[in-house]
Model the fold of this input.
Amino acid sequence: MSRSWSPSLSISSSSASRLVVTAAATAVLGAALTACGSGSAANSEPTGDPQPGGTLRYGLSQAPTCADPAQAGTNQTIYVARQVVDSLTDQDPETGEIVPWLAESWESNGDGTHFTFRLKEGVTFSDGTPLTAESVKKNFDAIVNTLGGVKAPQAVGYLSGYTGTTVVDDRTAQVNFSVPNAPFLQATASHQLGLLSDADTAKSAEERCAGELSGTGPFVYEDYRQDRSATLVKRAGYSWGSEAFGHDGEAYLDRIEFTIVPESGVRTGSLASGQLDAISDALPQDAPQIEGAGGRILTAPNPGIPFGFQPNVGRGVLVDPAVRRAVVPAIDRQELVDTVLGPDFRPATSTLASATPAYVELADVTYDPQKAERILDDAGWVPGPDGIRVKDGQRLSFPVLFSSVFAGNQAILELVQQQLRAVGIDLQLDLVSTPETTARQNAGDYEASYYNSTRADGDILRTAFGLQGRNINQRGPIPELDDVLNRQLSTTDPAARAELIEQAQQLVLDNGLWIPTVELSQAIGAGPNVADLKFEASARLQFFDTWLSE
Done:
């Protein structure tokens, strides 16, 4: 892919600071994404030269919850919001390499406390104002000082130790941290750190969610209706795309119309009948109808934290570490995949998903119901008259808080419920809306919360399980884990940092802070007229290269 610009700072494409993952890890990430992203061989997508124009009609499985990329948490929200903002860098989905986007080059100091970005010339926001170093400063300042950790927990986590941005000149911004932040470069490729106009960074969190936003992205909001629908139109004159994109210039599509279709069968039927061009959460049972209409299912595994239970260790029966340990071998993860999800999904084998750099398989994440029973027996939990265990008059029962952000969640948890009952644990399902899930997590009003979190970097363990931040586990200090999480944040050597992330995965499991179930994969149904619908490195959709055949 040709580019008319070239890096102008001292950093080079071969520099070690261009990468935040090891060579082995990037190979794993690239292989995982490319292996699962090609769709069905029996139903090939359109070929030939891309055709500009047309409207893509996309069916979301859930309503987007906020127009602001920094506050976007669900995949359905991110699919919309990501298209309107660009980031300083991008992450190549095939190699894991960090590549230029709004920044044409960058450099960092030796200990990872200062990162200097040189911006491309001629970039503008959709409100007509130019992108400057001051824009970078205002965006990062607003995330930390205006949005905060409640509204934008991941974005604030990525900026851990942020002390401010120095405007060196109009096109040069130096981002500063009080302590080393080795994974920050990879974070600059995320949608959460995508850049909005100066006017937007001055808005409140609620105002930013409403949809009147100006980014530098290849699409702009034409209409946004909170929790209902969204329409994007092509940005005329866009010419500063990511090096990971497949072409230069403007996007091919004229418009993207997102509608909300919660029922899986209705989404599939709408795609098969030509009322929609692409849909989210195409599960295995949907494949025959989609493929029968000439379409295909595209999949990509999400890096980050797989689906699982995050216990509140200060409340209910999950206060007992033996209970948390016993739940892990009581779950038959392969049965979850085989029964509910199908071959494009994988059982979780660690506290990180297998597509994540520095992932290691953990031997303890194995189905062994006899082990689960022994752990509970030794801890004094004995079977009661109805088969549910009791101890000191307390039933071994706990509710799990979850939402339907992924179409398979309820079916998975219903099967886990059966599996846990077989060893004497009573799991109660507490299905609520996504906003209520977030509110109750923030308030500590739950005994376990079920979700996943996506990022193509092992630092996600710190943002999910670190003592600072939201601390959904409601835990106190765990010196060994806290030390490892902090040291990986400040370790700039990729191999040494990978070793620390490997240790952290085991420590999170050993302390009962995460009970893994299955790895999430994005499964997208695409109609026969849709070409080059692609996944970026975090397995979210990228519509810039997408085009429609006649």
Remarks:
- Residues 1-42 have pLDDT under 50 and may be disordered.
- DSSP finds 17 helices and 27 strands in the chain.
- The radius of gyration is 23 Å.
